[in-house]
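Whether sequence alone determines local backbone shape is best considered at the level of individual chains. We regard such an encoding as a compact summary of how the chain folds. The sequence in question and its structure tokens are set out directly beneath this paragraph.
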Amino acid sequence: MLAKLETLFRSDRVFVFLVVFRWAALLPALLTLRVTPSFIPPLSALLAASLVNLAISFFHTRLNRLVVARPLLIGVDLLFAASLLTLSGGSRSPYFLYALSPLLASAFFFQMRGALISAGIFTPLYFLADLLAHRFSDGQTGEAIAIATQLAAIWLIPALFAYPALLLKTVHQTSDQLTLARDQLAEQNVSLGAAHRQLRVIHELTVLLQAAPDLVSVQQRVLGAVTTGLGFRHAVVGLVDPAREELGDWVLHPVNSSFPRAAPLSIKEENGEIFKSLLERKRHRTDAPDEILIAQPALNAWLKTSEWMILPLSLREHAVGVLLVEMDKTAVLTRAREEALTNVSNQAALALGTTILCIDRAQRLAVETERNRIARDIHDTVAQSLFGIVYSLDACITMLPHQAEDVKRELADLRALASNAHDEVRRSIFDLWPSALTLDLFKSDISAYVNSCCRPKQFRIEFETEGNFDSLPSGLRRAVYRMAQEALANSARHSGAPSAKLRLAVDDGEVSLIISDAGRGFDPSAALSRSHNREHFGLHGLQERARALGGNCEIHSQPNAGARVSIRLPLERLPVHA
């Protein structure tokens, strides 16, 4: 209802209402044409008022704007109304309602202030009109009650009309404010919608990148976020090879068979605008027809068929790659889409850079792990065999020439030992090991190996086993074998004891290996502190092997009190290299 009233009393429609009121206010004058005392003929007054109404009816839109712009024009209408009262009987004039029209107009246009001002101006004009009307007629003024009633109408009726006009103006202003707030909220909703889409694309990209197994997958998912997520038609990404300082591995999405293959190029400015943008870390939008994007004729020709935004990708100070996004030549890149593209490119740089760094770190770690494995295997096998060979050769030298036959037999054994050392070298380099290492083979090989290292004297090993050793993974069995080799070789070479005990236990949660002897013992802290002394490399090797497998190695010994090596390995973590 309020909205209908507001629509009805809007300022651009008020003249229509006032025109209707003016025409309706002429009905009393029309009904009293023959009985109205006036200075001029009644028909002349009615004709004058009708002509004014016609003028207002035809030009009400223009008059509406003029009255709003120049409020003093209301005074002209007040003078005309006062003149009409003067010429038609003053307080006894049938045009009194018609005379209220300018007062109502002032109330509608300017609310209470306009009503009071116009009533204040019209009051003396009313008295003057009544006085002049009766002077020109019978010399008698109007009745006091009639004059008082009409004066009350002059003040009360405009004031009553001004109050709802004031309320409706307030409602109209509030409606305008609400409309403005609605428009602002709509704009903010559009902005929030765009920001939500951006965040959703970035979130989905982040989730997908966490599951990406390799660089190619990361590239595909970054390109999918730019094209499918942000709505760009094509996108291309190239990666930097940090080792060679080259840019290549170009991938296009969506896939197009016309996209040419291009070899990597050195990251130099002369290789095109793409490389210049990467070096300067500044985005660049291609527009010049003669610019060279990349010094690869086929790829450059393919890229020149469209307009591209070049976005360099970098992680901290490291260049990661370049993202090329195809631009629509007929559309303007809005600020919201540009911010979204920037956010996605930053996320892409982080994902690609992190993946590249992880791959590089993994490669370095693999190289270091392989070096350590070979070093441990050579020490545990070849070095021990060579020690046994040298020890036996020294014995042969002392036996010559008196015990030639014994030396001959000894050299034959040494040849077999050297052949075994050769096989051990091959195993260490190529990581070869039989998967069928059973407990019986474990015991026999350990015994043969230790005795070959400390020839010509014999070294006895007392075995104590629990659990199912054969059920362990082959890599873990090999690791246990290597650590038992090292610990028993140290005992045979340095303890001075004729034997050692080996206890091997396998349960549901871990593998326990304990080697102990009753020999001369040593100070573990002093031995381990000499980390660069090759004589004690085996002790460090034992601890490193155990840590690499998620376990621990404890060495207990005292001078003249024997030694014990305790190793515990969890079954949950399987070894990569033993």
Notes: The CA atoms of residues 227 and 457 lie 76 Å apart.
